[in-house]
Design brief:
The chain has 2 domains: about 120 residues, Rossmann fold, CATH 3.40.50.1000; about 170 residues, 3-Layer(aba) Sandwich (Aminopeptidase), CATH 3.40.630. It has 11 helices and 13 strands. A hairpin with a 4-residue loop joins β8 and β9. It is elongated and about 75 Å long. The N terminus is likely disordered.
Length: about 325
């Protein structure tokens, strides 16, 4: 609303404070923190500032989602979460208007709404937050911003195509299975610790746990790197299987990152486990679904695939036919 010349970025104390705040946001983005804009403004005016202002640190490609309009910010926030396929409890909200902050806290208490004072304190508030601190940054963290930009392109294609089956065929999805090793163990552990939505058991494992599993010849620990025509999603699937005896396997962990859910990848990975079991003479593959507050997306997965419930355990007889999505390649 202030116009190009009225934007406070640069030479005066207020402008320098905003530039410094952007620098810290950029550093977080480069470490894998996703940025989005939720702003009441004219889109064309705001995007011109982002693209052309000489003191603008953050660029258009640093943002995974834009809601620049005159809509309710709570409505915008819900749309951002849906577009990025993340929970509201994964979102941190910065807004300089106390009314907007109070409204967001009231509507979405699960969103972490930060209390702000004057602009000179923004950077210090950001640096003091523990919410963005992680013990180790993986390759997927570094690439995450690019991955979400690729996701925007997928969303645009899906809107153009309309039909889900045709959309999935045009994506040219491939899944490469990798054994757990020194390079993949950090990411495997990270996914077990962070993945909530499509996670059958939500068992949390540190890197040390994964290393012990890898050294156990009665366990299978593998992950899946997912690619398509728009880019590399990185390692976004993990499964851990216990070889219980010569006739039965039990799936201890089966999870998929929310950003690749719903494309048939989950069915392809589970089918690959069952095919391998069948080749090794296994008669039954067993699994569990342990319900949590967040893993409802996985609730019907086993039954839809063809598993039969027996008490707390789901069982698949390997003599049965296996679902194989035709629109992707697994290797």
């Amino acid at each position: 609303e202030d116009g190009f010349e009225g934007i406070k970025l640069g030479d005066d104390p207020i402008g320098r404070a905003y530039v410094e705040f952007q620098r810290h946001l950029l550093a977080l983005n480069q470490r894998g923190v996703i940025l989005a804009i939720n702003s009441k403004n004219n889109f064309d005016d705001a995007i011109e500032i982002i693209r052309k202002h000489p003191n603008m640190i953050l660029k258009e490609d640093n943002f995974a989602s834009f809601r620049i309009n005159w809509n309710d910010k709570v409505v915008n926030m819900k749309e951002i979460a849906e577009e990025l396929n993340i929970g509201l409890d994964s979102i941190v909200f910065f807004d300089d208007d106390p009314i907007n902050r109070d409204y967001m806290r009231s509507a979405f208490p699960q969103v972490l709404t930060i209390e702000l004072s004057d602009s000179s304190s923004y950077s210090q508030i950001l640096k003091s937050m523990n919410d963005f601190q992680v013990a180790k940054i993986t390759n997927e963290d570094i690439k995450r911003s690019k991955m979400y930009l690729d996701q925007r392109k997928r969303t645009e294609l899906q809107k153009q195509v309309g039909n889900l089956e045709d959309f999935l065929k045009q994506l040219n999805i491939s899944a490469k299975i990798k054994k757990a090793d020194q390079y993949t163990i950090p990411r495997i552990s990270q996914l077990t610790l962070k993945t909530n939505q499509f996670n059958l058991t939500t068992r949390r494992y540190q890197e040390e746990d994964i290393r012990k599993f890898v050294s156990d010849d009665k366990k299978i620990v593998e992950c899946a790197q997912i690619k398509d025509k728009f880019g590399d999603n990185g390692i976004t699937g993990v499964y851990i299987v216990n070889k219980e005896n010569k006739q039965e396997w039990l799936i201890d962990t089966f999870l998929l990152s929310c950003r690749v859910m719903g494309r048939g990848i989950e069915e392809a990975l589970l089918g690959q486990i069952i095919e391998r079991a069948k080749m090794e003479g296994i008669k039954k593959v067993k699994a569990q679904y342990i319900k949590t507050m967040k893993n409802k997306p996985a609730e019907n997965f086993l039954s839809d695939f063809g598993f039969i419930r027996n008490g707390d355990i789901w069982v698949f007889e390997t003599t049965k036919s296996i679902k194989k999505p035709e629109h992707l390649v697994i290797s």
